[in-house]
Amino acid sequence: MATTEKRGVKDDRFPSTGEQTVWADVSPLLTSACNDLQDGELIHGENFSLFAAMSALEIMDPKMDSGIESCGYRSVEEAIENGAAPIPLSSDRTVDVQCTIDVMDHLLACEATWHKGHSLAQTIFSCIYLLKLERTSSHALLHSYCRIIRATCNAVISVVSDARTHEEEDLFTMAHGLPLKGEGDEKCLSMLNAVEETISRQLRACKAPSSKKKVLEDIEPLQTNLDLEEGFCKALLCRIRFRKHFYHVLMCMRKPQGRGLDLARKHIAACLSELSCIHKSLGFLRSNACGSSQDDIEDGTTASGCQAVGFDASLNSRLLAPTPPRSIRILSWKKALEYYEKLLQDLDIICSFSLDPLLEGVLRFVVQFQRSQPDLVARAHLQLLLVQDGKLYGRDPFYDVISRAIGDQEVQKNKFVGHLGQLVINLLKILCTNAAWQRRKLGKILQDWSVTSVQVELACKIECEEKSNTSADENACLKLSKALLIWTEEQTYWIAYRFLMLGFELELYSPNEYCMVYWFMYIILIKLLEKAQLRIAGSIDTTKRKGKKKRELSKDASRDAPMPPSILLLQCYIFLSEGLAMMLAALCNEHKVFQRPGIFNTEQERFIQHFELLQKARILDHISYVLFEEWTFRSCFSTVVKYNYFGDVQRISKELKNSFAGDPDRLAEVRQIEQVAVHNRIALNVINHAGGHDPSLNVSFEFSHHPCFAVAVVKRS
Amino acid sequence: MEEEGGEGVVELSISASEISYESYGGEHHLPLIMRLVDQELSEPYSIFTYRYFVYLWPQLSFLAFHNGNCVGTVVCKMGEHRNTFRGYIAMLVVIKPYRGKGIATELVTRSIEVMRESGCEEVTLEAEVTNKGALALYGRLGFIRAKRLFRYYLNGVDAFRLKLLFPRPELNPSLLEDYDHCHHDHHMQEGCSQHYHGF
């Protein structure tokens, strides 16, 4: 090893470092060391393992991969110096307007791409005009547009950050090193309004008949080609107005306690209207485009089809903000508009929520809302509406919410109510996240709920033992503890049920696992029903005891009272699960389908894995694979037909349709259940008729009528 | 024996017996693996990534040969993860003309057998939700889809975490430890998770 040490030499090239230290030039040493190593060879060290070597390199990321060739500009300044983002965009005012519209369109596409899960640095901040916003101040239109974009970004980031449940979507808020905050952004609306005002006048001016023109103030037109003035003015106005209304939507929705929701709806409607105008401007802009059109016009990020000027995706790759090495595709302009339409519709659903004070209603709303697969921005807004300052809608403390669910204010005195309130808050937040993450978290919180159940139960038992005399007050207290226990258990089963259902939506189960899943679901639902019935009976008791309005319910009547629709609905789901599980088991037994001999494991291992979290939470004792095996072993078609599960569902559905007559969402739900029942009943009869093991009969299961309850499809091959 | 297919596509009719399998034998195998993976998978890997796997767990990597050419490979690792000894399948590749012949299944099976013999309690991997071939292959071997990972891949595609649990004599579900993964870290993935598209 060559040694070239220069100790004790003061070298004026380098800054002085203190008394006892000097600089030593080790370049020759490093060079020889490099020559010692062949390509792909690696130094092994105690604290430099292969894992470290592998992880240290991030291929194609210029921050970490010194070998990557840098092409393009090395800095924003260099790009600007080379004319990558001219201001004005053209000396020809018509071209300048066209190019500005292209920038607006491409920015919209970038924004939608960012919302969909890509980094800010590679989307919105690929815009050089945004990277150096002050530069644009001479161009009022571009400047005000950039400001509102930046202000909107900040507003959206703030919502998502505050929701704090975007773990898997963490790229969204990462903005280190990006110029997100700027002075004067609060004035963005007034700037935009001024520009809008000017263009409106220009539009009026160009539409006025020539005789009136002399009366109107002399207004300089937007651009030089008078035939195109109207088209360009309109194209610009709808884009500006869209941004303005969208910003207002965000501001209104953030008002505490849902106070701004009605106004937000008005702005949403305006946004949708402007979106429609933006869409219509496509024809005009495309036929009056100048400049090169993008290769595939359908994938184009602008209405005109031309490439927008002033964007460079690679500029930020050396900044702190994450820029995953793989280049990303910006959404097409058309897809971006679709995204916004959906986002606005989702936000509108949130804004039209009645702010149901009952937890049951809130849970139902969130579950229903999630069925349309809303994106992160919409979900974050919902979460912030539901949970603010530790209260429901920022207004109702959760101990209140719980006591309303149980039907007795007194339950607030129970020492567990505070903790349960926290569990409910956590549950609501989780229910607003994306389905994949949601399911994992629901599986985890089952433990928390189950443990709390046990604690409440224990406290109940102790109370019971202590209260050997029968004073009415103490009896009431005990009843409350029991009511709280029942409610806690009911929520726990509800979470377990949702956990299992999400598995279908996420396609986690393969057909030969449907049977065990429906079986487990059936068992969970039975427990859920049991607790729900107890809760309802308990609250009727309470109302009777407190002599409230339901006095007309005599003791007999309360026993014979018709089952509330919520209970009937649960009954339907129980029959569907049981019926499907039995049918699948019978198919396995009699037709030898859905069997899967595993070479590495058996059905038991798969059972254990699927229900691991449920078992760990110990919400069901005595439920094991052995029990499942026994249950399915006895299943045969004649039994399934005899018990007529699906027929029962059809019968109950009729009754439910009457109960839910005024509620379109619930009606839709019942119709779906009915369809599943009808089709399965028919399939069952066909299979049963065929009898025995008929090799020409092909049975498959499809989710054509319900995302979680399958329908058997019978075909003859 | 090669045959020309209708549109001038060369089709190979090969019987399973013509494929030979070898366990990773040393440096001479490394370029074969790298070439295959570089060619077929879209994720760029540095040589250190390959070395990490094949140096530390040579017994878990296998190569498939036909007429002296390497046509497929599997690269894996195993180790302790939150109190579980678990195997992980990092890369699986079979070149296009050789797909659909069970080569991938054979490669994976051999590796899993070694994992089982070595005392692994389970085996895991990630696969794109759209990768029907991989999902079917692993499904047949007994893997379940334990989780769905939202936008796991940078192109926005979701992934399934697939897990195979080996049978154990003292099966008591209530004693199972928490296997769950911490949330996916964008910058430090557990090895290479990209899988071959299509078999």
Would you give an account of this structure?
The complex is a heterodimer of chains A (717) and B (199). By secondary structure, chain A is an all-alpha fold. Chain A is 58% helix and 3% strand. In chain A, the strands form 2 sheets. Chain A has a 3-stranded antiparallel sheet. In chain A, helix 4 (93-115) runs parallel beside helix 6, helix 7 (188-207) runs antiparallel to helix 9 and helix 25 (645-659) packs antiparallel against helix 26. Chain A is globular. Mean pLDDT of chain A is 87; it is low at 1-6 and 548-558. Chain B is α+β, with helices and mostly antiparallel strands. In chain B, the strands form 2 sheets. Chain B has a 7-stranded mixed sheet, sandwiched between helices. Chain B has a two-stranded antiparallel sheet with strand order 1-2. Chain B has helices at 30-40, 47-56, 103-117, 132-141; strands spanning 2-4, 10-12, 19-23, 62-66, 69-81, 84-94, 122-128, 144-149, 159-165. The longest helix of chain B has 15 residues, at 103-117. The chains are: A mainly alpha (717), B alpha+beta (199). Chains A and B meet through helix 2, helix 16, helix 21 and helix 22 of A and helix 2, helix 3, helix 4, strand 8 and strand 9 of B.
